[in-house]
Batch of 2 targets.
Target 1
Amino acid sequence: MPDVGQSQTLRRLEADLETLRAQGQLRHLSNPAGIQLSSNDYLGLSLDPRLKNAIVRALEKDQRIASTGSRLLSGNSERWEQLESEFAHFAGTEAALYFPSGYAANVGLLSSILKPTDTVFSDSGNHASLIDGIRLSRARKIVFPHLDLAYLEDALPRSDGHGEKIVVVESVFSMDGDRTPLREMMAICERYGAGLVVDEAHTTGVEGLHGRGMVNSAGRTGCVLATVHTCGKALASMGAFVAGSHTLRDFLINYARTFIFTTALPPYCAAHVREALSLAAKADAERDRLIELSRYLRQRLRASGFETGRSDSHIIPLVLGTNDAALRVAAAINAAGFAIRAIRPPTVPPGTARLRLSLNARLSIADLDVFTEALVAARANEAVRE
Ligand SMILES: Cc1ncc(COP(=O)(O)O)c(C=O)c1O
């Protein structure tokens, strides 16, 4: 029997869940089934047997299977340090530091490099991990309208804090599939003496020469403090690198709490990420295919009258409005054989519930045709309801 205090707390949790249920926002877990239209395995590497082989080889070689501690205690391994040097070379930076997830990388980075006297300019479309890192830092925060560079250009010179000015953006935004014009953004930051942090979660492995990301292809200038490259998406593995200067790496090893106070991943994971990086760097055919599929689907959807926002990438939002409409359309698409989930607030702004289509190089044009037809049928059903 829970004691009185505990049962009161549980009642409050129940009430909070009920609120979500009433708003059509209750989340639940389900196992993906069908043709994947919502995974971040953009290059389709997650099924590649070479990844499995790399892990098996590492397991056969390493005596120690578990990492046994934080990187600063017993958990370090040459495998991680070698991988970090290789990643820095890939990203075109002096150094890189690996975190066990992209969430941990963003929170650790922003909560440590920002000081309460700093002013941070954060795009309103930024991912929760960036938002949480900024919150923890207690820096003064100015959220600028999504991709509104004119707003930023106006706000930067007006902010009169004592500390540094730092702009935080994603290269391709996770929910909208649109892009930060990085050359312009870097020019603005240079003009007003601001530092820039770019989350390349959705562009690492996908954009630029050998998949090195958008900052690399735009030409990294001095204002770029850090780029964040997650490995759980196109790199079909796990964790994330923060890439930047030697000073940044040393600082994070000493101050980033999500690096210091967590058990390192086992060393065989480094072999997995290393192989994934090498496969991704060579995956030009998959990158070309992804562009082709994305262009095709965007064009088909727009021709069929669907709203896909400013998407210009392999992530295509299909904004449906209400939570219920998004849930119904997702269910109809699932029934047609596709794995897709409705994305609802607070992940996206209220009233913009959607399907987030994320393409991968293993899809075929025929898959996309069948999907579009299923979508048109689902829309017709919605119209009948109105
Ligand atoms: C833009 C962005 N940054 C960071 C993350 C977090 O990465 P991870 O899933 O490796 O924690 C995500 C994950 O969806 C993301 O979309």
Target 2
Amino acid sequence: MPDCCVVGGGVIGLSIARELSSRGLAVTVVSRDPIQSSASWAAGGIFPAQPSSDTLPPGLSPLEQLTWASDRLHHRWAADLRDETGIDTGFRCCGTLALDVSAPTAAELRDDVLRWQRLGVRHEPLPTDTIATLEPALAAAVASGFVRGGYLLPDETQVRPPRHLAALRASCLARGVELLDGGCVREFETTAGRIAAVRLQPSGTGPDSLTADFVCIAGGAWSEGLLAPLGFSIPTRPWRGQMLLQRTAPGLLHRVINLGAGFEYLIPRADGRLLVGSTLEDAGFDASTTAPALNHLRSLLQAILPDLSFAAPEATWAGLRPGSPDGLPTIGQLPDVANGWLATGHHRAGLHLSTGTAVAIADLICGESPQQPLDSFSPERHQTAATVVR
Ligand SMILES: Cc1cc2nc3c(=O)[nH]c(=O)nc-3n(C[C@H](O)[C@H](O)[C@H](O)COP(=O)(O)OP(=O)(O)OC[C@H]3O[C@@H](n4cnc5c(N)ncnc54)[C@H](O)[C@@H]3O)c2cc1C
């Protein structure tokens, strides 16, 4: 019998499993879908620049503290994952140009500057001729007036999500974690305020049920449905994001290119692949791509690099971000379920927040004091009269 059953094999579930196993717990991860169907695989892998100080800067909100801690952990995890598994996750400090291309992006940047100043994030205003010097591929967009100015954020990092997930899976397996791929959790059997069994859809090959001392639900956008039989309504509404992958010459762009606050972006990989993203759509659990969204991403690419012509994309895909009504993740113990834990609702930042979330959940399960304040993320905050369904 495992000490802990983690439901969900995305970046949150795998990171939790890795952290728990490193603390000596036997862990099983139950994961319904192929990894390519997860939000984690679909993500761009941008990690916004953090305060450059070595100690936690004062005055940060709980989410900013978790982000800062997660960011620092990523530096260590990327090196450890490479040593343990031989997989280079593509984690690198590439820097970002945050561009002003319209009135809305100019307004977003004005807000961002205030936030960067408050947090102590390194940023540098750039005249347009410097933008073209730093990234010669942008010269045409500068000359045409599409790019009107911007900022350099030298400390922004990126990771390649499929590689990060492959490394996490390999690291988990090397630590003895059991990965139950294709296992679909149907419900949880509770007795005396504890999850006594995790019931799975009969598959003919895997087990029909699992028992564990602890159960941690990390089901991404599907967490709300998973929790319903337990009597909780914790909203993790899916927000679809579409992506387009283009092959370009290596070195065409060196930095991530954000339009304004980064809802739309280009992410250059070291091998020349260029990701163009993304959208934020309320489309239920429909994770298909659509022609209008892909056309929009293509026109974005053409506007930023107008003097280049592009072949058909190498790939396109969509993923479902796990939403959260207040923009905060949910991390903590399930109310009135002594051995039930929850880590979900990371919306647009789950890759980035995965390391800090894993350490926080492992601290809580192991009875240690978490290093960041977690009260703002507690599952209880969703349990208002309107949302309690049991
Ligand atoms: C287009 C796009 C771009 C993004 N870009 C970034 C970015 O640049 N930086 C960043 O930090 N974040 C980014 N994100 C957000 C990030 O991807 C998510 O916040 C994160 O991946 C959520 O991880 P998760 O493990 O909670 O969910 P998921 O990765 O979706 O995993 C959920 C898991 O639960 C499993 N599951 C569901 N139901 C069941 C069941 N009944 N039984 C068993 N298993 C079940 C699924 O099979 C899956 O393994 C992006 C997301 C998208 C879609």
